[in-house]
Known about the structure:
Rossmann fold, hydrolase
Amino acid sequence: MPPSRRSLLSAGIGTLAAGTAAVGLVESGLVPGRTMMHTALGLTGENGVVPEVAPGPELSGTFTSAERAGAQVAWTVAYPPGSPTDAALPVVLALHGRGGDHRSAFDQLGLDRFMAAAAADWPTPFALVSVDGGASTFWHRRRNGDDPQAMLLTELLPRLAERGLRTDRIGLIGWSMGGFGALLFAAARPDLVGAAVVVSPALWREYSEVRPGAFDGPTDFAANDVFADQRPLDGLRLRVDCGRDDPFAAATREFVAGLTPPPAGGFQPGAHTVGYWRRMAPEQLRFLAWNL
């Protein structure tokens, strides 16, 4: 016997209700798929496009880092177009994300070309410096003696000063793992950091939530908990950006709420992706140029 009109209607309403409930669960984060769904619906925003311009001059080098337990560390300095490589420019350190290295800021994000496209209009051109901080150190001292923060302070910055760059007040930009590292560095040395941009920072409120390998254990997590005391960041010229569909968005919102005054930046359509980071790069570099 074929189904009645009433039974078909009831089934349709049930399916619609189930579908609505499923969307609600995804939206609330109770089941996975929110970011995938929002990306498919175009709700995470457009991907940024690296400008098709020639970058300025670059210098690269390596050194054996005592602070990083004898690791061979590579670095690159990107200058604005037309700048000599001995120019006394202020420094912005770019701290890469997990799995990255000193080339990530340029080869992956294209920050040298974003800088080349806009530096002529900046009040304070700067040299953008990227260095190997370790693929998964999370930019803090680890139990094996690898200390990328100390490397920045005692090994990299003196080398940059020897090349004529200004290192008395520096800028920072970091994304994901590097965003966390930038917060750690700025909180430890607020006297040294003139301005900082933190992008999609890898933040967790509890050790039980931490991605494996980010910390050596609960004690290490507690010793590097940027939520524990946010007062050193008070008054810092700080910009924090995070995509609304980023897995770190909730923790980042909580962190931003604890800052005085509230930082620049905000929460835009986006996820934890290179496309989002590229889209945000022009305004973030401009922020540094106007606040160094």
